[in-house]
Amino acid sequence: MSAVKEMKTVTASSQVHPLDSLSADEIVLVGQITRQAKPQMNIVFNTITLQEPAKDKMMSFLGWTTDGPRVTEIEREALVVALERPSMKVYEGVVSLTTEKLKSWTFVPDVQPILTMDDMFEVEELVLKDEKVQAECRELGITDMSQVFNDPWAIARHVNYPGRGKRLMQALMYMRTCEEDNQYAHPLDFVPIVDIGLMKVIGIERIKPRNSKFVRPTIPMEKHNFLPEFIGEENMRKDVKPIIIQQPQGVSFTVKGQEIDWQKWNMRISMNYREGLVIHNVSYQDGAEKRPLFYRLSLSEMVVPYADPHTPHYRKHAFDVGEYGLGLCTNGLTLGCDCLGSIYYFDATFNDHKGQAYNIPNAVCLHEEDHGILFKHTDYRNGRAHTVRGRRLVISQIVTVANYDYGLYYYFYQDGTFEYEVKATGELNTHVLAEDESPEGYGVTVAPQINAQYHQHFFTMRIDPMIDGPNNTVGQVDCHRVPYPTGHPKNTFGNGFYSETTMFRDTHQAQAIPSYDTSRVWKIFNENRVHPYTKAPVAWKVTSMHQAPLMAQDDSVVGQRAGFAKKTVWVTPYDEKQMFAGGFYCNQSDGSDGVEAWVKEKKDVSNTDVVLWFTFGITHLPRVEDFPVMPVEYCGFKMQPCNFFIANPGLDIPPTNKKVNQSVLAKSTPEASDKQGCCSTKL
């Protein structure tokens, strides 16, 4: 991953760190080494990515563990996931870039690896050329196949094609009336099933109208577009004045390669094909002490299950991380559009099926944002007000997975808070209705004959903590009413309540869902370090305002495959092979490899190296206002120091004033402009 600078105040280093993403040259070299070692095989390179070094070695390399000689050199390795044509057998290889040798090559039975952009493009083209698909389109009145489009989707698990012996996809069909037309306004009523190994359409499923006199629905032809050329310049708002965000003295962060320093925060980033943006080795400078916080943070998996129980809609539950890859779906961002202000960009580099590298420019955006008041107090006696405005460091990427777009944001705040936010936008996945048909309670008619189905979005973060060291314990905090009625000597006025902390000691205990009744939150403790004031272990609190139960049955297809969505909190002992909540080979999976399966055996998670899997999400009942393009829907979670520091860590942030931020009155007078602001200081 290389860096593209948009300003001159930051410098980048070319030195390779063990956690740096593979460069384009390294990807090509890995492909060459693999082909040379396996000349008899017709290899399709599904994945070429960094094989991250073992954590115990990295903890020594980074200086966090000192119980032995410090590791100063790390072998650089790449993981290869390959398919052999025509059998489509799957192999895993490990290539040493240090020695330029293929170290291992293993056949992996009964799996299907991630679906790549090459797969998508090949399936899109194949479907349009298929005679059966063309016949379906003719019956609907379409004679020009250039008007037909399709979104290739993972098959989930198809009842007619059980198991993972075939590499399958399904195509959701649409049409356009012109090149830039919104295809989701013109959905078609059939779904081709594609065998990627054979590169053949092996079946077509029609979606029959329900409670309708029609055998097939007609295509809704009314246009519903949102691009400016369709709206018309004359119809655009004329009362929008510019907002300009400037940092005339430059930014407050520095970048060295993929390492970022911002105020008291330090971290590294990387970008991989699957999780996309990953944050490594997070620490906070607390006075003279640099305190470790998190070894690794990433969006491990997500699933979007749809509500309609009829065929083929039961298969619509997209695992956008494990089936498609957030890295592979990353947008190249545009200055002044996706991020505002003084921007620093990082590129991302991935591989194609031939083992060649391709670049996504401006894949990651780094910048600062004003975030309103951080803290304030006014002394009503003398009128003295002290206001400190906060800002946050933003590290973000935006991905497009067919119809949906997700903005994925890592926020770091000056008071030590960390927040992760998803901004879901893009277009609704639509389904055609016959003229007399209704969604029957499983969706909403957002335009004539266009059904936007109910669905949910679940996101599971993999949080690998090192709160003041590698051994941590996750606990649950519940608030309870004092168990005595009003008037009782121990609760005379009835207002008493207290908090109760339950430390999770094993993987069976460490499974949790939200509780409105107890205002439940969770904490990550270091039981080896006691706060001098509270006399209790230091901790970080984990909270979310966006939690929803999985509406599908536990034994449904999605319930079996996405077990991670059944609970908000899971805790497992660290295992370098357990990186993805839905399993490494998520595509066409049965759910036997994932968080829910890993915790069946009771294992110790007390005061040891643990991983916290935290799920948040929303239930989306679409609105007409979400069509033809959806305003952003927000969800996320945050982690905050909780009895970790000795006081508010933002006390040393200087107050701001209008001379610094150049604020003005919208309707100003000279007398008003001379008055001091409320955030004045006596310094």
From TrEMBL:
<keyword id="KW-0479">Metal-binding</keyword>
<dbReference type="InterPro" id="IPR015800">
    <property type="entry name" value="Cu_amine_oxidase_N2"/>
</dbReference>
<protein>
    <recommendedName>
        <fullName>Amine oxidase</fullName>
        <ecNumber>1.4.3.-</ecNumber>
    </recommendedName>
</protein>
<dbReference type="InterPro" id="IPR049948">
    <property type="entry name" value="Cu_Am_ox_TPQ-bd"/>
</dbReference>
<keyword id="KW-0186">Copper</keyword>
<feature type="active site" description="Schiff-base intermediate with substrate; via topaquinone">
    <location>
        <position position="404"/>
    </location>
</feature>
<feature type="domain" description="Copper amine oxidase catalytic">
    <location>
        <begin position="244"/>
        <end position="650"/>
    </location>
</feature>
<feature type="domain" description="Copper amine oxidase N2-terminal">
    <location>
        <begin position="17"/>
        <end position="106"/>
    </location>
</feature>
<dbReference type="InterPro" id="IPR036460">
    <property type="entry name" value="Cu_amine_oxidase_C_sf"/>
</dbReference>
<feature type="modified residue" description="2',4',5'-topaquinone">
    <location>
        <position position="404"/>
    </location>
</feature>
<feature type="active site" description="Proton acceptor">
    <location>
        <position position="320"/>
    </location>
</feature>
<dbReference type="InterPro" id="IPR015798">
    <property type="entry name" value="Cu_amine_oxidase_C"/>
</dbReference>
<dbReference type="GO" id="GO:0048038">
    <property type="term" value="F:quinone binding"/>
</dbReference>
<dbReference type="Pfam" id="PF02728">
    <property type="entry name" value="Cu_amine_oxidN3"/>
</dbReference>
<dbReference type="InterPro" id="IPR016182">
    <property type="entry name" value="Cu_amine_oxidase_N-reg"/>
</dbReference>
<dbReference type="InterPro" id="IPR049947">
    <property type="entry name" value="Cu_Am_Ox_Cu-bd"/>
</dbReference>
<dbReference type="GO" id="GO:0008131">
    <property type="term" value="F:primary methylamine oxidase activity"/>
</dbReference>
<comment type="similarity">
    <text>Belongs to the copper/topaquinone oxidase family.</text>
</comment>
<dbReference type="GO" id="GO:0005507">
    <property type="term" value="F:copper ion binding"/>
</dbReference>
<dbReference type="GO" id="GO:0009308">
    <property type="term" value="P:amine metabolic process"/>
</dbReference>
<keyword id="KW-1015">Disulfide bond</keyword>
<dbReference type="Pfam" id="PF01179">
    <property type="entry name" value="Cu_amine_oxid"/>
</dbReference>
<dbReference type="InterPro" id="IPR015802">
    <property type="entry name" value="Cu_amine_oxidase_N3"/>
</dbReference>
<keyword id="KW-0801">TPQ</keyword>
<keyword id="KW-0464">Manganese</keyword>
<comment type="subunit">
    <text>Homodimer.</text>
</comment>
<feature type="domain" description="Copper amine oxidase N3-terminal">
    <location>
        <begin position="113"/>
        <end position="206"/>
    </location>
</feature>
<dbReference type="InterPro" id="IPR000269">
    <property type="entry name" value="Cu_amine_oxidase"/>
</dbReference>
<dbReference type="Pfam" id="PF02727">
    <property type="entry name" value="Cu_amine_oxidN2"/>
</dbReference>
<keyword id="KW-0560">Oxidoreductase</keyword>
